[in-house]
Design a protein that fits this description.
lipoprotein, PBP_domain, about 35% helix, Phosphate-binding protein, 2 domains, 6-stranded mixed sheet, plasmid, about 325 residues
């Protein structure tokens, strides 16, 4: 069962999570398929605060993990913010937060900032995602877009103003573009694979930028000529009020789905999602327990929130890094 819209719609930029007790330390775990995996009996006395920030795309998964972890460790407070991948790295590389969510790899200059501040870290992949190109459900003319057409729409100084500028038989109506903002890892990834360089994108009055994917969802939902992109989980939770656009990279139109993202046929917009953890913070029992819990449960929870689980060996490799 999918987690409700509370995970991805209408949430503030940070949320305080502190759940109820998961039972006494002597309880025997039940062998249910989606029961979160942990060693609650050994970790029952954990306490402290873990602050997380970063990618709005990774947020639903990390928030779900934090909620489940909090239900077993009521004395550990986990806060999860949404400042975008870039915003998260700014805080992470100065040692302000223990963990950051990232929908792109750390940039060389960000890694240099971390080094200059004495921050050593571990990168852990947690799920797969496929960037989803979206239009309003009233749009009955866009059946698919090619990678070249996406470039024409989103490239710097784009001359595409109306739908008819893409294909002559489409309406001569202004396109309203909704795009992740400059601090978003989704923006970095999309602009790199579509426009050839990260951060290179059109910036004109027809574009609305936001680091919050919920704002993009609401914008496209309320605008007949809306067009935008964001992580697959946000489409999954809002598919009754959005229209997904198949993408043709040369082998015919393909829509993102767990199957096409996992097998690589949805290209070039499939990508891994990651968390970065401060190694010094990882020495704290509550942080170590949380990250172990995260990797042990990311597969099931990623599917619950609309992403695609990694192969088990990748989670095992991540757990090995923590030892």
């Amino acid at each position: 069962m999918k987690r409700g819209k509370a995970l991805v719609v209408g949430l503030a930029f940070s949320i305080l999570l502190a759940g109820c007790s998961g039972g006494t330390s002597g309880d025997t775990p039940q062998s249910e398929p989606n029961t979160p995996k942990s060693n609650a009996s050994e970790e029952a006395k954990l306490s402290g605060t873990i602050e997380i920030d970063g990618s709005s795309t990774v947020y639903p998964l990390t928030e779900a993990v934090a909620e489940e972890f909090g239900s077993e460790h009521k004395d550990v407070r986990v806060t999860v913010g949404i400042s975008g991948t870039g915003g998260g790295f700014k805080r992470f590389t100065t040692g302000e937060i223990a963990v950051t969510n990232a929908s792109r790899p750390i940039k060389p200059e960000e890694a240099e900032d971390a080094k200059a501040n004495g921050i050593e870290y571990t990168e852990l992949e947690v799920a797969y995602d496929g960037l989803s190109v979206i239009v309003n459900p009233q749009n009955d003319w866009v059946d698919y877009l090619t990678v070249k057409e996406l470039n024409e729409i989103f490239k710097p100084n784009s001359t595409v103003k109306k739908w008819s500028d893409i294909r002559p038989d489409w309406p001569a109506e202004d396109i309203k573009v909704f795009s992740p903002g400059a601090d978003s890892g989704t923006f970095d990834y999309f602009t790199e694979v579509i426009n050839g360089k990260a951060q290179e994108s059109r910036n004109d009055p027809q574009v609305t930028f936001s680091e919050n994917d919920n704002t993009l969802v609401q914008g496209i939902e309320g605008e007949k000529n809306g067009l935008g992109y964001f992580g697959y989980a946000y489409y999954e939770e809002n598919q009754d009020k959005l229209k997904l656009v198949p993408i043709d990279s040369g082998d015919g139109p393909v829509s993102p789905s767990p199957e096409t993202i996992n097998d690589g046929t949805y290209k070039p917009l499939s990508r891994p999602l990651s968390i970065y953890v401060n190694n010094k913070e990882l020495e704290k029992p509550e942080v170590n327990a949380f990250i172990n819990f995260y990797l042990n449960n990311a597969g099931d929870l990623s599917e619950e929130v609309g992403y695609i689980r990694l192969p088990q060996e990748m989670y095992d490799e991540g757990l090995a890094k923590l030892k």
